[in-house]
Amino acid sequence: MKIISKRETSSRKVILITGGARSGKSSFALREASGITGEKAYIATAEALDDEMRERIDQHKKQRGKDWDTYEEPIKIGGLVKDIGNNYHVIVVDCLTLWLSNLMHAGLNITDAFDDLKKALDYIGKSERALRIYIVSNEVGLGIVPENELARRFRDIAGTLNQEIAEIAGEVYMLVAGIPLKIKEKVK
């Protein structure tokens, strides 16, 4: 499945940050994005479905501080990025893996959602505005082969999505134990 055409998107504006769970991806994305002058947006794909998750979300909001506008959108991130892109200098999307899980759980058409994401990234690439987008996504392909069909399908789709975004991204980082490793950089 080909999701994004690299010729249509400016690679200097998209940064992919991947790694395992709790590897420091989100902290790294926020630290890097916080260094950019201008308006900042954080798109959270998590849903507060229980008390523990509500508490986590509240804590994360406090950690980001008042410099960040937070948008909670579990499904339509492509449309949201396109809608708010002109208002910000930097956007952090956290995270694509949870977004994919939300799509699958809701039984939505994943190809259509990928197409919306592609359109948003194309929009960013063509924009005259100095907008950068940091995309956080889990690397799920480093473990054993999942034992059930749904888990294998999730792993396969997440892997494809990460590969496609990495292809068009100007920079790709892998986080291991909180340490960022730059694994791709396009020089223009």
SSE blueprint:
Elements: E1 14-19, H1 25-34, E2 40-44, H2 51-64, E3 68-72, H3 77-84, E4 90-94, H4 96-106, H5 110-126, E5 132-138, H6 149-168, E6 171-176, E7 179-185
Parallel strand pairs: 1-5, 1-6, 2-3, 2-4, 4-5
Antiparallel strand pairs: 6-7
Written account of the structure:
This protein is of the alpha/beta class. It has one domain (about 10-180): 3-Layer(aba) Sandwich (Rossmann fold). About 45% of the residues lie in helices and about 20% in strands. A seven-stranded mixed β-sheet has the order 3-2-4-5-1-6-7, sandwiched between helices. Strand 2, helix 2 (about 50-65) and strand 3 (about 70) form a beta-alpha-beta unit. Residues about 1-10 have low confidence and may be disordered.
Annotation keywords:
alpha/beta, 188 residues, 7 strands, Rossmann fold, globular, seven-stranded mixed β-sheet, disordered N terminus, 6 helices
Secondary-structure element string: EHEHEHEHHEHEE
Give the beta-strand count. Answer: 7
Strand percentage = 15-25%
Strand order of the largest sheet: 3-2-4-5-1-6-7
Unreliable stretches (pLDDT < 50, length at least 5) are 1-11
The biggest beta sheet is recorded as:
7 strands, mixed
CATH topological fold name: Rossmann fold
What is the average of the pLDDT values? 88
Q: What would you say the CATH architecture is?
A: 3-Layer(aba) Sandwich
Number of domains: 1
Based on secondary structure, the structural category is alpha/beta
Which of globular, elongated, flat, extended, rod-shaped describes the shape? globular
